[in-house]
Design brief:
Structural class: mainly alpha
Distance between the termini: 57 Å
Strand content: 5-15%
Number of strands: 5
Radius of gyration: 18 Å
Helix content: 40-55%
Number of helices: 7
Strand order of the largest sheet: 1-2-3
């Protein structure tokens, strides 16, 4: 029995996520939630770990949305539609980490296709008179030499995804801060608008 093609738009289930751009905004939301927790010097492991898994699932989901849109675009131009996964990992180096974490959490089984030998570590860092003690999440490569903070990994994934979406024609313009972030910044700083230049943290829009 063949599967019936969907006749309703995605927002029937997602409410706001309708394309690659809005799925990228969902990724931004999850990255911000994780970073907020990490910036608060957490003394509990669960909020940090659960938020990190959510980032990875959002990044994996974005890949699925972008792949469908890219295939449709390429076919409309009469071009080949193979190799999207390779293209993603060339342009979004941290996507392999996110894909393996997302698939491990989804399938209740360790997945190691993209980030072979990698490990997520929850480390306790003793504080001092300037910085409180905290749990910190790190991504450790197979050689145990690469020890990137998840905070930095996720920020790069968010920024790299925007640049990649622009490069394949699914987005345009400078990276921006989504509506939820605009509202957050207005609450903190007042009524001005802000943007996120590629590779940068939040900055005020001129």
């Amino acid at each position: 029995m063949s599967r019936k093609s969907p006749s309703k738009p995605p927002e029937v289930h997602t409410v706001l996520v309708v394309d690659s751009i809005t799925m990228w905004e969902k990724l931004c939301w999850d990255v911000e939630q994780f970073q907020d927790i990490q910036r608060s010097y957490p003394k509990e492991r669960q909020p940090l770990a659960f938020a990190a898994i959510n980032v990875c699932i959002a990044a994996w989901s974005l890949e699925q949305w972008a792949k469908i849109a890219w295939i449709k675009k390429m076919r409309s131009e009469g071009k080949e539609v193979s190799g999207f996964s390779t293209l993603v990992r060339q342009n979004v180096p941290g996507q392999g980490i996110c894909a393996d974490v997302a698939n491990t959490s989804k399938h209740a089984n360790h997945r190691d296709e993209d980030w072979q030998g990698g490990e997520v570590l929850m480390e306790w860092q003793d504080g001092d008179e300037d910085v409180p003690s905290t749990f910190s999440l790190r991504h450790v490569g197979s050689s145990n030499i690469d020890r990137a903070s998840a905070y930095d990994t996720f920020e790069k994934v968010r920024n790299d995804w925007w640049k990649f979406l622009v490069s394949i024609g699914l987005a345009s313009g400078s990276q921006y801060s989504p509506e939820f972030m605009q509202n957050k910044l207005r609450r903190i700083f007042g009524g001005r608008d802000y943007e996120l230049p590629p590779g940068a943290t939040l900055t005020e829009k001129n």
